[in-house]
UniProtKB/TrEMBL annotation:
Residues 24-189 form the DUF1989 domain. This is DUF1989 domain-containing protein. PANTHER family: RE64534P (PTHR31527). NCBIfam families: urea_degr_1.
Length: 232
């Protein structure tokens, strides 16, 4: 297990917590873990301006997985931030964003792939590693394949949406040490691709490590309560 010192941020400490898992994910690498109901996942942008592509699945039934469409419909916003409930394709809550240093995150731009790199940036990029390849390699460890990949979350990626509906990938809003904290509303398998993209500004053209920390309430006996429409 690798740990990395992180500066203090503005996120308040809600309750005393026990660290269950604390790992640094190298630049361009993949990561996965099961976050149990009631536990918290903190994603820390160690160096700033690093996109972190993320997929969520019900740990007991991976046919139930993150749905960008259900999440946007439930939240009424094209951006993800504090209070957003990350919904499944069954319109059930998977995780809730309980704290966010950055302000907003993307869930409409998808993940980079060899195919999209070639289309956007030219055939010379075909050999470059991409998020889809990370998801496929890490997902295979959990019995997931290409058909299980859906439109994902992009923590810290800045994708403004203009009045006419156009969007772009521009310089990030993040900074070193900023964090986003998620509470699991079910047992959730989390897949992460620490984005290797170097052809647009989503990583400042220089991918860097991030930190993934799972904590739980110290002495807690009951996980966070949920209803059919989301957390209480």
């Amino acid at each position: 297990m690798t740990t990395t010192a992180v500066p203090e941020t503005t996120i308040p400490t809600a309750v005393p917590a026990t660290v269950v898992l604390d790992e640094a994910v190298p630049a361009r690498a993949a990561w996965s873990a099961v976050v149990r109901r009631g536990q918290f996942l903190t994603v820390t942008d160690l160096h700033g301006n690093q996109a972190v592509d993320c997929l969520l699945y019900d740990a007991h039934d991976t046919a139930v997985r993150y749905s960008a469409a259900d999440t946007l419909q439930a939240s009424g916003s094209v951006f993800v931030s504090t209070g957003t409930v990350l919904m499944s394709n069954e319109h059930t809550p998977l995780m809730t964003v309980v704290a966010d240093d950055c302000g907003r995150h993307d869930t409409i731009a998808g993940a980079c792939s060899k195919e999209s790199n070639t289309l956007r940036y030219g055939h010379h990029t075909w050999s470059q590693h991409a998020c889809v390849e990370n998801f496929l390699a890490e997902g295979a460890r959990h019995g997931l394949g290409k058909r299980d990949l859906v439109s994902n979350l992009n923590w810290y990626m800045n994708v403004p949406v203009e009045a006419d509906g156009t969007l772009g990938i521009v310089d990030g809003l993040s900074a070193p040490g900023l964090r986003v904290v998620l509470r699991a509303e079910a047992d959730v398998l989390v897949l992460v691709s620490n984005c290797p993209q170097v052809n647009n500004p989503c990583n400042g053209f220089d991918p860097t490590p991030v930190r993934m920390t799972v904590t739980e309430r110290t002495g807690a006996t009951e996980p966070a309560a949920t209803t059919e429409d989301g957390p209480r």
